[in-house]
C-alpha cells in the first residue's frame, strides 16, 4: 500500500510535469495536445498514470468493503493472480491483431475486477465458518456483492454492445464472456450467502440447506460449463484453439462430476436415516455419558451407528454432509458392500489426523458444555471438520474458485 502510494505520487508528479512542459513550451492548447499524444515518453507516462489510477481505485474498493485482508486471503490472491496473468497472456495471443492500448486497459481492469471476486468468495467462505460475525461485516459483504454485480453488468453491457452492433467477432467476445462468468459467480456467491443467513436465522436447524446448496452449485457449474463451451466454440470458429480455456473447462467439468457423485452418496445414506440407524435404547443412553460429540449437548433421543456410538439425528445428518465415517471412532457409517464403496467412504480421510483436535474428546466437556453456545460449538465443529477434510460437500473444493 505504501509502495503504491509512493509510486502513484511519482507517476502523478512525472505526468503533471510532462503536461506542464507541453503547455509551457507550446503555449497553445492544440499544439500542446499534439505534442502530448505524439511524444513517446508522454504516452508512456499517461499510460502509467492510468494504471496507477486503476490500482488506487482497486485498493480503495478493497479498503471500503473488505478492510484489511487476512493472511490466507493475501496468499490466495497472489497465487491466483499469477495463474490468471499467464492465462490472460494466452488469451492476448489469440487476439493479437486487436492489440491496442484500450485492449491493454480492459485486460488490466478485468484482472482487477476478477481479483475482487476471488476476495468476495473467500470472505463469504470465511464468514460462513466463523462463529460470531459482527453486523458490520454482513453489511459490508452484502454491499460488496451488490457493487460487484453492478460492475459486472456495466462491463458486460459495454462489451456486448459492439458485438450486437457490428455483428462480427472481435476481442469484445472475450470480455463479454469473462464478465458473464463473473456475473453468474457473483449471483451464486450471493445466493450461497443468503442460504447461510437463513440457516443462521433458523439456528442451524435448516435441514434442507445442504440440498439447496448442492442445487445452487450444480446450476452454477452447469451454467459455467455451458458458457465455457460456447466461448470455446466461438473462439475456435473465429480465431483458433483457445489454449487458455482448456484448464478451466476441464476443472469445471471435474468439479461438476465430483459434486454429483458426492450428492448421490449423501442422498443414499440420508434418504432412510430412520430405518438405517436404530434408535438408542434408554439403557444405551445411560451407559454412555449421553453427550452428543457433534454438538456437545445432552441427548434424550439418539441414533446408534453400527460401531455403537450415539448422536442426535440432526447432528448426524449435518455430519454426513461432510464425512461418511463415525465422528468418534472413524468406522465407516455404511458397511462397505464392495471394494468401490469402501474406498469412497474412506475418501478424504487422512490417517493420523486426530478428530479430537476439532471436536474435542467426549470426556472433556463436562463443566464447559453449559457455557458453550450451542450454535457456536456446531459452527466450530463444522469449520474444523472442513479444514481437516480439505474436500467436502458443503464446503466446495478450492479448485472451484478457478471457475470465477
Ligand atoms: Zn448433537
Ligand atoms: Zn463410532
From TrEMBL:
This is RING-type E3 ubiquitin transferase. Its EC number is 2.3.2.27. It comes from Aegilops tauschii subsp. strangulata (Goatgrass). The keyword Lyase does not apply. GO terms for biological process: ERAD pathway; proteasome-mediated ubiquitin-dependent protein catabolic process. Pfam families: TPR_SYVN1_N, zf-RING_2. Keywords: Endoplasmic reticulum, Membrane, Metal-binding, Transferase, Transmembrane, Transmembrane helix, Ubl conjugation pathway, Zinc, Zinc-finger. Pathway: Protein modification; protein ubiquitination. One of its GO terms (cellular component) is endoplasmic reticulum membrane. The chain crosses the membrane at residues 7-23, 43-61, 99-119, 139-157, 169-195, 225-246. It is an enzyme of class 2 (transferase).
Amino acid at each position: 500500500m505504501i509502495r503504491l502510494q509512493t509510486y502513484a505520487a511519482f507517476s502523478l508528479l512525472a505526468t503533471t510535469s510532462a503536461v506542464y512542459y507541453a503547455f509551457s513550451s507550446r503555449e497553445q492548447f492544440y499544439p500542446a495536445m499534439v505534442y502530448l499524444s505524439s511524444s513517446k515518453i508522454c504516452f508512456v507516462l499517461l499510460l502509467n498514470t492510468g494504471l496507477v489510477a486503476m490500482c488506487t481505485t482497486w485498493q480503495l474498493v478493497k479498503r471500503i468493503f473488505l478492510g484489511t485482508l487476512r493472511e490466507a486471503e493475501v496468499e490466495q490472491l497472489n497465487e491466483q493472480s499469477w495463474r490468471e496473468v499467464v492465462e490472460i497472456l494466452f488469451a492476448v495471443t489469440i487476439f493479437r491483431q486487436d492489440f491496442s492500448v484500450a485492449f491493454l486497459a480492459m485486460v488490466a481492469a478485468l484482472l482487477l475486477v476478477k481479483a475482487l471476486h476471488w476476495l468476495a468468495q473467500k470472505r463469504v467462505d470465511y464468514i460462513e465458518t466463523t462463529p460470531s460475525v459482527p453486523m458490520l461485516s454482513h453489511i459490508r459483504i452484502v454491499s460488496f456483492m451488490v457493487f460487484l454485480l453492478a460492475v459486472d453488468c456495466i462491463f458486460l453491457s459495454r462489451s456486448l454492445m459492439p458485438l450486437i452492433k457490428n455483428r462480427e467477432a472481435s476481442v469484445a467476445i472475450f470480455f463479454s464472456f469473462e464478465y458473464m462468468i463473473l456475473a453468474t459467480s457473483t449471483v451464486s456467491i450471493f445466493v450461497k450467502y443468503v442460504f447461510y443467513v437463513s440457516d443462521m436465522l433458523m439456528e442451524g436447524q435448516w435441514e434442507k440447506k445442504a440440498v439447496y446448496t448442492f442445487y445452487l452449485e450444480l446450476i452454477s457449474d452447469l451454467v459455467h460449463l455451458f458458457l465455457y463451451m460456447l466461448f470455446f466454440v466461438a473462439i475456435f470458429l473465429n480465431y483458433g484453439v483457445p489454449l487458455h480455456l482448456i484448464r478451466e473447462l476441464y476443472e469445471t467439468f471435474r468439479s461438476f462430476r465430483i459434486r454429483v457423485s458426492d450428492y448421490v452418496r449423501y442422498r443414499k445414506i440420508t434418504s432412510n436415516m430412520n430405518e438405517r440407524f436404530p434408535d438408542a435404547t434408554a439403557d444405551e443412553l445411560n451407559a454412555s455419558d449421553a453427550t452428543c460429540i457433534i454438538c456437545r449437548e445432552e441427548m434424550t433421543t439418539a441414533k446408534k451407528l453400527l460401531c455403537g456410538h450415539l448422536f442426535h439425528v440432526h447432528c448426524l445428518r449435518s455430519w454426513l454432509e461432510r464425512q461418511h465415517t463415525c465422528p468418534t471412532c472413524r468406522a465407516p457409517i455404511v458397511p462397505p458392500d464392495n471394494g468401490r464403496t469402501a474406498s469412497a467412504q474412506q475418501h478424504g480421510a487422512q490417517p493420523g489426523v486426530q478428530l479430537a483436535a476439532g471436536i474435542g474428546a467426549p470426556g472433556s466437556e463436562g463443566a464447559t458444555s453449559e457455557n458453550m453456545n450451542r450454535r457456536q460449538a456446531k459452527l466450530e465443529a463444522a469449520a474444523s471438520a472442513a479444514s481437516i477434510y480439505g474436500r467436502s460437500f458443503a464446503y466446495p473444493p478450492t479448485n472451484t474458485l478457478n471457475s470465477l
